[in-house]
Amino acid sequence: MTGKTVVITGASSGIGAIAARQLARQGARVVPVGRSQNETFALARELGVEAFVADYARLDDVKALANQLLDTFPKIDVLAHNAGTMMGKRTITEDGHEYTLQVNYLAPFLLQHLLHDRLSTSKAHVVVTSSLAHWFGGIHLDDLNFDKRRYSTQAAYADSKLADLLFAREIASQSPQTGITAAAFHPGVVATRVGRDAAGVLSVSYNTSMGRAFMFNQEKGGGNLVAMLSHENQNGINGQYFSASLISNRLISNARSSKQARDIELGQNLWQRTESILGL
């Protein structure tokens, strides 16, 4: 990774911050992006790099972030779409989208679009943090915002992570034309703050000592992200989904995914629907 420019979103804490530290030790030029100004700048000072702050709940922040990255880095070798969240109740952003969907999927999609030319000329590798939860998701192209369906934390999160997996696979399918490779992965059930705003069972899992006792620690989850970002054969894993074993935490390549996650036509339709939603 020596000399490679690696942009990591969701790097203010959790596995993103762990991965940033590990990759910096490997000689990468790490670019941490986070929502918390204090935490992101503290990490940047620790690593001796420049920090970038963006709140994915505001698409204007994503546009500003893209401009800053393009102005600063003539080449981007690796991009980690790692930022994520859960919401305990249905919340609509100022952009008019369901909060979890926007932060976990729409904002990364927009950033990918805005950085496309730079990523293409760099022959970049993209890693999307998905989740085992995608198995419980369903893509409803006419109701991504839960306007018609009953909202739940679990459903919104699972849907967004299924969208992330389809997103990664569609980037990979376009690789012959763009030169950009992509893979998605489940980092393991990691004790991070992603579920701090969750409700119900997920809140118990993420926000109690009993629930977190059954999760992997952040070092293991961050190590899995590093393994994805620094994989020695990025062309070879193009389009693949990796999943951390629930027992050993080892990453399994070509892991099983849900029927919808393997639906090529659905991935194409979701891509087109997303472009329409974002006005691209």
Describe the protein's architecture and organization:
There is one protein chain. The chain is of the alpha/beta class and 280 residues long. Helix content is 44%, strand content 12%. An eight-stranded mixed beta sheet has the order 3-2-1-4-5-6-7-8, with helices on both faces. Strand 7 (241-244) and strand 8 (251-252) form a beta hairpin. Helix 1 packs across helix 10 and helix 4 (99-114) packs parallel to helix 6 (153-173). It is globular and about 50 Å long. The two termini are 33 Å apart.
Question: Concise description?
Answer:
The protein has about 280 residues and is of the alpha/beta class. The protein has one domain (about 5-280): Rossmann fold.
CATH secondary-structure class: Alpha Beta
The tally of helices reads: 11
Write the CATH fold name: Rossmann fold
Largest sheet: spatial strand order: 3-2-1-4-5-6-7-8
Question: Strand-residue fraction?
Answer: 5-15%
Sketch the topology as an H/E string, one letter per element.
EHEHEHEHHEHHEHHHEEH
Average pLDDT over all residues: 89
Rg, alpha carbons: 17 Å
Q: Termini distance?
A: 33 Å
* Structural domains: how many: 1
Largest sheet: 8 strands, mixed
Q: What is the fourth-level CATH superfamily?
A: NAD(P)-binding Rossmann-like Domain
Summing up helix and strand content along with how strands pair, one would put the structural category as alpha/beta
DSSP strand tally: 8
So what's the overall shape?
globular
Helix content: 40-55%
Poorly predicted ranges: 201-215
What's the architecture in CATH terms?
Answer: 3-Layer(aba) Sandwich
